[in-house]
Amino acid sequence: MSFSASLRDVTLKYGDTEALSDITLALEPGKIYGLLGRNGAGKTTLLSLLSAFRRPTAGEVLVDDRPVWENIDVVSQVALIREGGDFDDTDTVKAAIEIGALRPSFDLDYALKLAERFELPLDRKVNQLSRGKRSVLAAVCGLASRAQLTMFDEVHLGMDAPTRDAFYKELLAEYLDRPHTVILSTHLIDEVANYLEEVVILDRGRIMRHENVEAFQGMGATLTGPADAVDAAAVGLEVLAEQRLGGTKSITVASALDAADRGRAAAAGVEIGPVGLQDLFIHLTDPDRTGA
Questions:
Q1: How many other β-carbons are positioned within 10 Å of the β-carbon of residue 144?
Q2: Each residue of 217-252: pLDDT tens digit?
Q3: Range of the structural domain that residue 194 is part of
Q4: For the segment 28-58, what is each residue's pLDDT rounded down to a tens digit?
Q5: Which residue of 64, 81, 102, 106 is surrounded by the most CB atoms within 10 Å?
Q6: Where does a domain end: 216, 245, 262?
Q7: 3-state secondary structure string, 88-147?
Q8: What are phi and psi of 232, to 5 degrees?
Q9: Same domain for 124 and 143?
Q10: Are residue 97 and residue 53 in the same domain, yes or no?
Q11: Same domain, yes or no, for 265 and 158?
Q12: pTM for the whole structure
């Protein structure tokens, strides 16, 4: 079983400031979603609504087609994991993990297995952990929660690159073993792009885009080849970035290429590839482009 999640005409205000403005969003069950946005876009606020940490000023928040606010049957199957976790600093790592077992679906054996794999010192107190190890502890508790809706809010930021890679692989393995709904809020877009099925982009408290990954990959292209040929192929296209090494040039364009464009580029010896999700995100949320 997996949980769907939806927000219907949701607004959340902090005083006179609207953190989220008239949000309508529907997430199907059993998928891995990427939640992207610049700092202050409203990502953490949105996740806090889905986990019933906050109540919307207006609108309706549903998880599994049921109101999430003060609904223990729903909330007990929803996990929001934030960077560094929400632990008592005076607890030992083992005690912090065991507290997670209060959640009905928590798998303590799995959590302890992950703790061993990620070399978490069980006898050390939480406040004695490095930032990276504390992030690992949070991730372990999130994976072992076995929740039907699991949300990771920048939980990987303190980890080094090998640990992040191991976390992503474990997340995918656990998802394949037990299909459920996952939301990853992240700034490390290129690292997680291959794990995502759909992407939601927040911009200044509003939904800018919600598409499957394939749709984003079709929004632009990279052109690589002899510099003169690449420049000719890019005429009339919006260029996001370019690199040059000797006589070879590579550019990223925001425009999708039609069959005629592709034919001319190929004839001129220009290779065409997909544009990275991170480059598209930077372009789409550029304040100069969106008028901020």
A1: 25
A2: 778 888 999 999 999 888 888 887 888 999 999 988
A3: 5-216
A4: 999 999 999 999 999 999 999 999 999 999 9
A5: 81
A6: 216
A7: CCCCEHHHHHHHHCCCCCCCHHHHHHHHHHCCCCCCCEHHHCCHHHHHHHHHHHHHHCCC
A8: -65, -40
A9: yes
A10: yes
A11: no
A12: 0.88
